[in-house]
């Protein structure tokens, strides 16, 4: 169950190059990513129009991608521009191309109706390695449905129990966020005053006593999680996020479904440290990687249990408000896309 008319991260900018094509499955589609001779990213269906051999096994040339089986060459729009030994190229000799945009260190892809691809809808991740924001980053491959990963990100009550040495905060289970829906997703607001800092915040912010903590989160449909979180020494004047000496994290988790039971998980963690010590980004990054490994262990085990328990439905709890809202919004968008596709098919018949 995927929303197709949306932007997803297909790869990092470094993964997409002019040397070797990159094969990746995205929303069930096998896609090949590459750069043309002028450096522009391109994405095509990963199958030659001739005999359906994977184009990702081919060679990148200045003006396109050449299949290694019989040598057909396709440009960035999917049009065949050369058939060895044949001057005439039939119009049907082409493969699907996908809209792509390079922005904020990522290659974004639009798997749906190309006519609806609006680059203004790409989530703003400009903090990624921006001046004054040293950034940790990474990629995780999950053997689990992307909505299980989304559930995890939308319910922070698990931090106390899953992330005991990294993100744990004993106040989280009792600090329910305010959940505010909007057209493109939901916003969550949480503030906890006079609490013990998490191990990661204590290390990164140099806090030795209690802190005032905040996080402001946005879930951008279908699958981008933005989390502005931080801490300041407890008891200061004004909102914690406006105080001098506050620690700021501008985290983004960017989920791209691979299949119904696997997920590409890209993440960036830009930081603004209270004392400007950019060297702290390495231990912070290590802490985030440890925390995400803890999440993956639980979520993949959860997927295995669900696969072995067909027909058994999870029971709800009060902390499920945000994740239930997002699941409902995703299901609604998927239905709308299916209905629109059915109408288009009928009109085109």
TrEMBL record:
Pfam families: Rieske (PF00355), VanA_C (PF19112). InterPro entries: Cholesterol_7-desaturase, Rieske_2Fe-2S, Rieske_2Fe-2S_sf, VanA_C_cat. Residues 7-109 form the Rieske domain. PROSITE patterns: RIESKE (PS51296). Keywords: 2Fe-2S, Dioxygenase, Iron, Iron-sulfur, Metal-binding, Oxidoreductase. One of its GO terms (molecular function) is 2 iron, 2 sulfur cluster binding. The keyword Metal-binding applies. This is Aromatic ring-hydroxylating dioxygenase subunit alpha.
């Amino acid at each position: 169950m995927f929303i197709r008319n949306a932007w997803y991260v297909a790869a990092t900018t470094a993964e997409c190059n002019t040397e070797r094509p990159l094969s990746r499955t995205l929303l069930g589609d096998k896609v090949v990513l590459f750069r043309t001779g002028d450096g522009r990213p391109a994405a095509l269906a990963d199958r030659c129009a001739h005999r359906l051999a994977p184009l990702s096994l081919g060679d990148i040339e200045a003006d396109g991608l050449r299949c290694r089986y019989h040598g057909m060459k396709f440009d960035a729009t999917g049009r065949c521009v050369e058939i060895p030994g044949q001057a005439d190229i039939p119009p049907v000799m082409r493969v699907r191309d996908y809209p792509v945009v390079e922005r904020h260190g990522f290659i974004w892809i639009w798997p749906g109706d190309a006519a609806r691809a609006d680059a203004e809808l790409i989530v703003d991740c400009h903090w990624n390695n921006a001046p004054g924001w040293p950034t940790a980053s990474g990629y995780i491959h999950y053997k689990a449905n992307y909505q299980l990963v989304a559930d995890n990100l939308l319910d922070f009550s698990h931090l106390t129990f899953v992330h005991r040495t990294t993100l744990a905060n004993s106040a989280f289970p009792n600090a329910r966020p305010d959940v505010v829906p909007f057209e493109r997703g939901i916003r969550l607001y949480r503030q906890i005053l006079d609490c013990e800092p998490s191990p990661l915040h204590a290390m990164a912010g140099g806090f030795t006593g209690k802190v005032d903590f905040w996080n402001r989160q946005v879930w951008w449909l279908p699958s981008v999680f933005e989390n502005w979180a931080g801490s300041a020494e407890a008891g200061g004047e004004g909102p914690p996020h406006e105080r001098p000496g506050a620690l700021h994290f501008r985290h983004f988790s960017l989920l791209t479904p691979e299949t119904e039971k696997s997920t590409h998980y890209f993440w960036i963690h830009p930081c603004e440290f209270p004392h400007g010590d950019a060297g702290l980004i390495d231990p912070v990054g290590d802490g985030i990687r440890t925390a995400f490994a803890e999440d993956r262990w639980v979520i993949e085990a959860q997927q295995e249990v669900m696969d072995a328990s067909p027909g058994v439905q999870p029971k709800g709890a009060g902390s499920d408000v945000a994740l239930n809202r997002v699941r409902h919004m995703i299901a609604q968008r998927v239905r709308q896309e299916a209905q629109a596709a059915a109408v288009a098919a009928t009109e085109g018949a």
